[in-house]
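Co-fold these.
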Amino acid sequence: MVVLKTISVMSRKAEEFINITDEVHETVESSGVKSGLAVIITSHTTTGIFVNEGLPCVETDIADTFTRLVPLEAPYAHAHFLPSYGATGNNSTGHIKSLLCGNNCIFPVSDGKMVCGGAQDIYLAEFDGPQKRTIFIQVIGE
Amino acid sequence: MVIDMHVHPIFYDIICGDKNELAFRQKEFGVWKQSPMSFDEFFAEMDAGGIDRAALLPLDLTATAGGWIVTNEEIAEIVSAHPERFIGFASVDPNRGDAVEVLDYAFGKLKLEGLKLNPAKQKFYPSDSIMEPIYKKCIEYNKPVIFHAGLSWEPDTPVKYCNPTLFEETAMKHPDLRICLAHFAWPWVREMAMLMIKYPNIYTDTSLLYLDSPEESMQRLFTVDMGPRWFERSFYKQVMFASNGPRFRAFKLKRALDKVSMRDYARTALYAENAERFLKGE
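Predicted complex below.
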């Protein structure tokens, strides 16, 4: 059995980490799959999905490291008007941070529940907000 | 207080029920790969930049393209939903026979607060005789006019209609008409500065079509295209903060302007006071 669900998240800052752990668990449990795998995938190129400990200090260190690696002001080639959009890009940092972060995570499903370690929270990482974002949750199993 | 004086509400979902109308707006405005959005999304965007209010601009293309890029009635509908956040402008195609009546209705009944025109898109010169009754109607109601000036990305917009020097006669003839030549009339920034020196009733805004990052573009505008102290010494009462959304994200432009060196009184004027004076007069 393969079940595809989506969840929507509204980010409210240019960059923020949104803890989606509870919503993902509920979505997987509602899928009807008892044993298998759950894959959580963002549908965007300026967001990421990551798994880490849900502590504000850890979030701060991760955010600071991304910004140190990918500073806001640098001579990015993408910083220009895009005729195919009729709008400017100017979100190079979002694209690069998304790449570094990764766009998905995966967990086992057992007895109808997603199995995570005690410190494993799931985040949508917003790198070009505020925007309404869509996340795919595909549950594969029986 | 921060006021964004140049927003096209093309994708506000409460006016996106008709797919053909939305497609017309996108084609005539030249903007793609964006979708209808809720007030919640737009307000999140404004809040991210600390932007309190936004001036919403329609465009009447009845005579030249057979439709509108957002109608006066749609602007009034959006404003009535959130009057605390929006300032509604009117538009009228100067080439339509009932232009003055349309404008009178927009000011008198719809209570819209200014007029938006695009000479290149609507195919007129600012000093054409057909414009005189329109200017007089604006003066009668004490309403300002925002003209598109300089480069327009919209299709079918010859720049010959939008050189800022074409607006000089109108500014001279109507010193009591407040005129904004939007987008800093880019690339004619020096000409724009010349006009502001001569005519205190001429304003401009920061919503130029930028070619680099917002930070690079605003630094260039305020320190290279203009001398680094021109704005706060000579024009601080005539430039308004504006984004030209949905082409550009307002909070990124605001972030870039926050980094431009200027005295506090000039920044306060840029972000809100000039817009308030432009809208209501002294």
